[in-house]
């Protein structure tokens, strides 16, 4: 059984070998250019390949651009600080502050933008740390390292771009199209269900699909200005999908008070879902659904009108994504306004990790500056590099074992090459030839998904510790360099393992953000504020974003996540009533009383829900009573969510 499974699942597949050979050739070719031009530290030209490599061409190009730009900016800042006529310790302080800023930005701005800030920090460290601790001739070495990095970026990008395929954008758009169909099918399932738990599994599946689309949207758009412009339509699809699901839940809860479903409505929803799944691209004109069910019809209940509006927004958003938007301005203007999901900015994590990274870099560099121990420059540079690298990881404690094993493997290979191969190399030609098998092994390891993370640091350690292409050093110097590199990696790994960023705590922060957003909507200003709608809409979009992120909590995620969106929707509707000029004083007081009761904590408390039910009994306006009932129903459905907050707090504390 074990043997058959081993045979059917080969370790090295064709794509792994293909990408591995491409990586090896690009790294080797960049190294050749640096050697042929007699640039000092030529091994720095071979390094960019291991970090620039990405599985799609667009992402590769973006990463290469940010690597090149980050190197330029980091080098300019680094050399600029060195030219300031101040004490080296003052230069070190400025450098430490900038490390904190760039490290925090690498977390605030995700993706390739964050990688650009990481590259700035790394380049500043490479330029400044050796020059401050040991200023003798280190500036020339820093210049050569930066030049080699530029050579590596350009050569590796050109070579890899010739072989790496584009992102499968058609299959990605197909996934978005299927999401549209699934969301409408979910709506059909929910409004025909007897209980709110009946559709929990399909709800979790769709939320997972939304998360996947949200995570891959930037990858799909990488390297294309036009596709980046279309990201707002993907945001709109995500927002509308969540709104359709929430509107469907609202109908389910409303049905428990009184039936709001027209005859044949659920069957028409199912038919619409099937039509969408069959035809791509799908146009609203391809169905008579909206002709049959007019949003402005007086016969339809408000909950049905809301669902129709959100479905129309969903289809219009997909239409805008799959078609040339400039040619359909009239359609878009009448039916759809693109949406922007505000990106998640985890400032708490960013600031904490920036402080830890800056502290490590400053203390180690300052210590090496005052105590001129042997190879102090390499000690400070090694620890600083690893601190900056770890500071860029979302969860460094997960990557620590892989990184340490990679460093140890790279150092061992460097020792084998320096002691077993390099002493017998007669000229530069044989240097390039003997390096090929090592780079092929490095490339395949980097391309393999199970060894990719460890291979990055293994390849860096091999080139950095081995000083490949440099003059032979004494054996003791080589051993000391390898030992310093391993100890530096071990020290930083240990520090970040002892200071982990727990996924549960980040999940709690994301869920608490939903609660804070509800508080902001409740506390919206009165009628004198003309921008209340834009503010509330922005908060609702943030709620949608947090809901999709909260779906990643895992199997323990509670029911009631979508119902929190209905809570926000009901609150927004109450504020809309406050804006009406013909609102009578009694209704005004009743709405303000409801909002005051709702502002009390915790939101899911049964006492608060009971108080709201008492207030509903005194409301004469049918519209306001309906909104208040929706609010209470949504709070009841959201109770597992608010209970989960307390449970998660207790488990973390």
UniProtKB/TrEMBL annotation:
Signal sequence interval, chain numbering: none
InterPro entries per record: PHBA_efflux_AaeB/fusaric-R
Taxonomy, superkingdom: Bacteria
Pfam families attached to this UniProt entry: FUSC
Keyword hit for Transmembrane: yes
Entry's localization field: Membrane
Keyword Isomerase attached: no
Regions crossing the membrane: 16-37, 68-86, 116-133, 139-164, 349-372, 378-396, 427-444, 451-470, 482-499
Keywords: Membrane, Transmembrane, Transmembrane helix
Topology within the bilayer: Multi-pass membrane protein
Name of the protein in its database record: Uncharacterized protein
Organism from which the protein derives: Orbus sasakiae
């Amino acid at each position: 059984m074990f043997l058959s499974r081993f045979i059917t699942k080969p370790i090295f597949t064709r794509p792994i070998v293909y990408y591995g050979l491409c990586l090896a050739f690009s790294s080797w070719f960049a190294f050749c250019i640096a050697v042929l031009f007699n640039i000092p530290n030529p091994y720095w030209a071979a390094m960019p390949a291991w970090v620039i490599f990405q599985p799609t061409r667009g992402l590769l190009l973006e990463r290469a651009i940010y690597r090149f730009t980050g190197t330029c900016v980091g080098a300019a800042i680094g050399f600029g600080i060195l030219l300031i006529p101040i004490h080296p310790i003052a230069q070190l302080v400025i450098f430490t502050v900038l490390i904190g800023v760039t490290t925090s930005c690498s977390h605030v701005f995700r993706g390739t933008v964050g990688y650009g800030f990481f590259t700035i920090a790394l380049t500043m460290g490479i330029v400044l740390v050796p020059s401050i601790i040991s200023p003798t001739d280190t500036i020339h070495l820093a210049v050569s390292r930066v030049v080699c990095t530029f050579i590596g970026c350009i050569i590796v990008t050109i070579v890899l771009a010739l072989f790496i395929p584009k992102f499968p954008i058609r299959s990605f758009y197909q996934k978005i199209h299927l999401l549209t169909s699934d969301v409408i099918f979910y709506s059909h399932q929910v409004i025909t269900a007897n209980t709110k738990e009946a559709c929990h599994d399909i709800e979790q599946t769709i939320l997972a699909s939304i998360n996947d689309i949200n995570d891959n949207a930037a990858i799909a758009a990488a390297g294309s200005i036009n596709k980046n412009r279309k990201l707002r339509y993907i945001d709109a699809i995500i927002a509308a999908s969540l709104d359709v699901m929430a509107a469907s839940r609202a109908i389910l809860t409303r049905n428990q008070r009184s039936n709001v479903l027209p005859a044949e409505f659920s069957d028409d929803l199912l038919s619409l879902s099937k039509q969408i799944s069959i035809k791509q691209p799908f146009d609203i004109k391809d169905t008579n659904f909206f002709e049959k069910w007019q949003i402005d019809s007086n016969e339809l209940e408000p909950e049905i009108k809301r669902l129709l509006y959100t479905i129309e927004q969903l289809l219009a958003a997909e239409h805008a994504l799959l078609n040339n938007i400039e040619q359909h301005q009239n359609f878009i203007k009448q039916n759809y306004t693109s949406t922007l999901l505000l990106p998640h900015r985890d400032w708490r994590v960013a600031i904490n990790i920036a402080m830890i990274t800056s502290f490590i870099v400053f203390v180690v560099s300052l210590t090496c500056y005052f105590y001129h121990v042997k190879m102090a420059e390499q000690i400070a540079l090694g620890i600083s590099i690893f601190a900056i690298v770890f500071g860029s990881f979302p969860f460094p404690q997960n990557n620590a074992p892989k990184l340490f094993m990679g460093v140890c493997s790279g150092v061992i290979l460097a020792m084998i090459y320096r002691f077993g191969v390099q002493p017998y190399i007669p000229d530069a030609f044989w240097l390039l030839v003997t390096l090929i098998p090592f780079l092929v092994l490095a490339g395949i390891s980097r391309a393999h998904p199970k060894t990719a993370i460890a291979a990055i640091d293994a390849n860096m350690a091999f080139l950095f510790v081995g000083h490949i292409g440099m003059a032979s050093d004494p054996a003791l110097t080589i051993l000391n360099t390898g030992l310093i590199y391993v100890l530096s990696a071990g020290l930083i790994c240990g520090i970040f393992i002892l200071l982990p960023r727990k996924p549960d705590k980040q999940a709690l922060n994301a869920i608490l953000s939903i609660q804070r957003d509800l508080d902001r909507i409740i506390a919206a200003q009165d009628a004198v504020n003309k921008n209340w709608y834009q503010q509330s809409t922005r908060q609702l979009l943030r709620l949608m974003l947090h809901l999709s992120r909260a779906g990643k909590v895992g199997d323990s995620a509670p029911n009631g996540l979508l119902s929190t969106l209905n809570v926000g929707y009901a609150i927004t509707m109450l504020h809309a009533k406050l804006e009406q000029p013909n609102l009578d004083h009694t209704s005004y007081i009743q709405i303000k009383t409801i909002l005051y009761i709702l502002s009390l904590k915790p939101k899911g408390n049964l006492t608060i829900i009971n108080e709201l039910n008492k207030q509903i009994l005194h409301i004469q306006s049918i519209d306001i009573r309906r909104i208040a009932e929706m609010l209470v129903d949504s709070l009841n459905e959201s109770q597992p969510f608010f209970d989960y907050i307390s449970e998660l707090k207790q488990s973390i504390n």
